[in-house]
């Protein structure tokens, strides 16, 4: 029996729907691969061996894409958040020195707040601008800008 394009589409839809009943997120990609083979067969007739070869290629490509680009996109979000704000400048509202914490205010919220306690290796008087060089827990380390 030769498989027709709609057989692949139907099989793909069944696989995608079966993903709802199986507690793993894996069958979906084989269903999407089957649908892609059906779409290709709608345009170009393929031999049975080529159909299964394409199904394997599409399915593997979808699984690889899932693990490489889409799975767990928040894995490094904390690090990105910290690194994204290094170099931002704000206004010192309470003097900071090597011996005392100060306070900095930003025009737009940084990491969820517009004011932060700061530390610095040098004295930065109130009213001066400073830039973030590190995020240490709930405190920002700054340098005079």
Q: In percent terms, what proportion of residues is strand?
A: 15-25%
Note the run of SSEs as H and E. Answer: HHHHEEEEE
The count of helical stretches stands at 4
Note the overall shape: rod-shaped
Keywords: Membrane, Transmembrane, Transmembrane helix
Transmembrane segments: 6-22, 27-46, 52-70
InterPro entries: Membrane_assoc_protease, NA-bd_OB-fold
Structure explained in plain terms:
This protein has 145 residues and is an alpha+beta fold. The chain has two domains: 5-70, no CATH class; 82-144, OB fold (Dihydrolipoamide Acetyltransferase, E2P) (Beta Barrel), CATH 2.40.50. 43% of the residues lie in helices and 25% in strands. The protein contains four helices and five strands, in the order H-H-H-H-E-E-E-E-E. The chain has helices at residues 5-18, 27-43, 48-70, 77-85; strands spanning 89-94, 102-110, 113-119, 129-136, 139-144. It has a five-stranded mixed barrel. Strand 1 (89-94) and strand 2 (102-110) form a beta hairpin. Helix 2 (27-43) crosses helix 3. The protein is rod-shaped, with a radius of gyration of 28 Å. The termini are far apart. The model is unreliable at 74-78 (pLDDT under 50).
Question: Which descriptors apply to this entry?
Answer:
145 residues; alpha+beta; OB fold (Dihydrolipoamide Acetyltransferase, E2P); 2 domains; 5-stranded mixed β-barrel
């Amino acid at each position: 029996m030769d498989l027709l394009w709609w057989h692949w589409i139907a099989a793909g839809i069944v696989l995608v729907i079966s993903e709802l009943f199986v507690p793993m997120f894996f069958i979906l990609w084989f269903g999407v691969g089957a649908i892609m083979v059906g779409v290709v067969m709608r345009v170009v007739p393929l031999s049975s061996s080529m159909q299964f070869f394409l199904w394997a290629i599409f399915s593997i490509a979808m699984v690889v894409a899932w693990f490489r680009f889409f799975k767990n996109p928040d894995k490094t979000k904390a690090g990105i958040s910290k690194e994204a704000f290094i170099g931002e400048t704000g206004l010192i509202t309470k003097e900071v020195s090597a011996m005392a914490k100060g306070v900095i205010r930003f025009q737009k919220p940084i990491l969820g707040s517009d004011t932060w306690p700061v530390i610095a290796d040098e004295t930065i008087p109130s009213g001066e601008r400073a830039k973030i060089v590190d995020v240490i827990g709930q405190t920002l380390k700054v340098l005079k800008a």
